[in-house]
Amino acid sequence: MSPKFPFENKRLGQEEMINKVESCLENRKNLLIHAPTGIGKTVSALYPAVKFASKRGLNVFFLTPRHSQHIMAIETLRKIGNITVMNIIGKMGFCNNVYEGLHPGDFHEMCNYLKKDGKCKFYNKVYNKGKVTDEAKAKVRELSGDILTSEEVKKRCGDFCPYEIACQGARKSTVVVADYFHLFNPFISGTFLAKIDKKLEDSIIIVDEAHQLPGRSRDLVSSKLTSYILNRAVKETKDVQAEISNDLENFQSAIENLKGKIRMGDEGYISKSEININSFGLKFLERLKETADLVIEEGKERSHCLSILDFLERWTNSDEQNFTRIIRKKPSRYGEQVEVKISALLPSEITSDIINNSYSTILMSATLQPLEMYSDLLGVKKCESVSLKSAFPKENRLNLIAPIATTKYSRRGDAQYKNYADIIKKVFDSVGGNTAVFFPSYFFLQQVENYLDDSINYFRESQELSKEQKNQMLEDFIKSKNRLLMGVQSGSFDQGIDFPNNSLKCTIVAGIALATPDLETKSVVSCYNRHYGKGMEYGYIYPAVQKVVQAAGRAIRSETDKAVVVYLDERFMWRNYIRALSGENFKVSRAPWIDIKEWKGVDAKV
Question: What would the pLDDT profile of 206-217 be if each residue is shown by its tens digit?
Answer without folding.
Answer: 999 999 999 999
